[in-house]
Amino acid sequence: MAKTLFKNLIILVITLAAILRLWKLDVVPVSLFGDELDVGYHAYSVLKTGRDYSGNFLPLHFQSLAEWRTPLYLYSAVPTVAMFGISPWGVRLPAAMFGILGVWLLYLLVKLMTGNEKLATLASFLLTISPWHIQYSRAGFEVTQMLALYLAGLYFFFRGLKTGKYLVFSAICLAFTPWVYSTAKLFLPLTLVTLFLIWRKDLFKVSKKYLLWACAAFAVVVLPITYSTIFGGGAARFNYISVFSDPTMVPEIGFARLRDAKMRTPEAQIGIQPTVLDRAFHNKITWPFSFVFRNYLEPYSAKFLFIEGDLNPRHSPSGMGQMYKFEFFFLLLGVASLIYSKLDKKVKIFLCVWTLSASLPAALTRDGGHHATRLFFLLPPLIFLTSLGIYQAHEWLNKRWQKLFLVSLGGVILLSFVFYQHLFWVHYPWDSERWWHAGYEDAIKTAVSESGKYDRVIISMAGEPAYIFFLGWSQFDPKVFHQNYQYREDGKWLPVETIPNFGQISKLDKYYFGSPGVDLYSLANVLPDRTLYLATAKEVNVNLILEPERLPGDLKLVKSSPFPSGEPAYYLLTKVDKQGL
Prior knowledge:
Number of strands: 9
Largest sheet: 7 strands, mixed
Helix content: 55-70%
Distance between the termini: 77 Å
Structural class: alpha+beta
Oligomer: single chain
């Protein structure tokens, strides 16, 4: 009876997880932002040519316009882009599916580690309704895939301690995590060392045949991505975001030394030589270390977890933390319960190490202390500890109070969840519309459909660099792009042509990328004849949706592309010809 009950419960939990991650996936978030379009166009290029859009054949790291990207999620998007095109469904569906899979895998892992089906079901339910997990399951982020592989790897590892053949599957799943997201390149070695140190005696009892197979499988999978990271472009991204390469470090150190000098000698000026003590306290070792330490501690703060969360609207809705406020008490209770519980000592140690080391990779990066994407490995142990706190609170009560506890807790969870859903579906689309680059899809697709009426289409570069928005939303032929694209450090990847009043601007077929740097009332004076110009609302600086009469007589408004809130996002403008058309 109990077995059937829990089987039905986990089916309901996974069904709920699927609904929360798939329902209106193309509606909220409101649009594909630049990185998602980058995923989509890479996948589209692989589908059509076998190469990334930079022309590299089946690469180990995809060469984007701004960075090098880990490959597995992009390859995972190829089938969905083949089915749905470069669209929210095409780009986001893999993240949603791996998010759903992660819920099931957490259930299996907790059940295997603790032998407690109630606790496993509760943990999977909390992950199902987790705002942190839902957010990343509904956008083209790689981390749900990374986490699913990691959870699968741990599950097969613990099964492999009893049945050695599963260690091969564990090795493969874990070795693939660095293929998904760069955080795993630092976190995976920590995990492997921890697993070996804690369970080395158990591992040595496993048949050598299975151990050799597991090591061989791990090496085959992990060595190519390791080589590409070290000797290819894979390390470029970390070098860019690392605290050790922060361009503000040198001036900040200089300012700190000058401040010390002024404390001693108020008339000290810039250029004064620092003393030995100044150098000892302010240097390229102490400065980044202080940032790493702060970044390490910040993810465990109540401010990040329960109050503000990640302030980037793409990573978290404003108005709440990464977790529900009701989870705060149970998380603390779960930590205490873990210490005094009857769980296997090895499992306790592993969970502690997992929790305390999950923020280390993010701590090495700028703003890593509140970067929910880079901190995604922290989510499962927090969910487990919260679940353990709820479970123990229930078990400590006598039967008379257990029902009241469950009813009260159910009401609190329901209210918290309803509040979050209201925030997500009602407020979030408008609050985050600019961060998701809403309006670009309509503007680009309209420009492409209208392009036959004009000699050229110029797409403004006054806001975000427009290349990937054009390539993605137009589904521009990758073969043609390969013929025109050439990687350059200065960012001039495309052929250039001189357009009067625009200067030398990039060109792709009849599409040009540049801005004249003038206001609305001077635009007709610099815009060439028979040219369609896609302008940002910021450079127009007039709301032509509410005040169409303010459009100059020498310009024609072809179309306005608004944000979901109704505010203008982009305009398609052309110069009125001599016949007034």
